[in-house]
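Trying the structure run again after the queue cleared.
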Amino acid sequence: MYDYNTLKKARPFLNLPTKARTITNQWLTAIKPENNVVINASDAKRLGISDGDKVRVVSKSNPGGYWDLKHGNRKEMVGKAQVIEGMKPGVVGFCLGYGLWASGGNDIMIDGKKIKGDSRRSAGINCNAAMRLDDHVTNTSLYDPVGGSVAFYDTKVRLIKV
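Done. Tokens:
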């Protein structure tokens, strides 16, 4: 089986378009076990971020940079930076399908019995909790009135080196 670095040399662009099901597919996670926060090289230099550094993603809607899972549980929006020239300056991105918490990555209790989670299933980062919330309907993401979709691509975020 090939590892990610071997494939990256042969094919520098790797598309895993499975979204939430990526992390449960061990064929895909064997190739790319976690995603990254992708940032332009000039932005990274200005922020003092190097390839592989851990960064927290924060926004106006989520200044703490974490998912509130309730009952004292939370999932940090922290991931490894991937510094590239090919990302537009001023824009960051991440591959969906990683950083989940309810896909078998955590221990759960069923009928009083602890079912052990697989930590590989919670690897990486998911930044959806940083999405801009509607200023008037405060618990709902801002949406595009024309297409009716959540405004995934319209949220201003800040990266903080961890």
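The two ends are 33 Å apart (CA to CA). Worth checking whether this holds up in the mutant runs.
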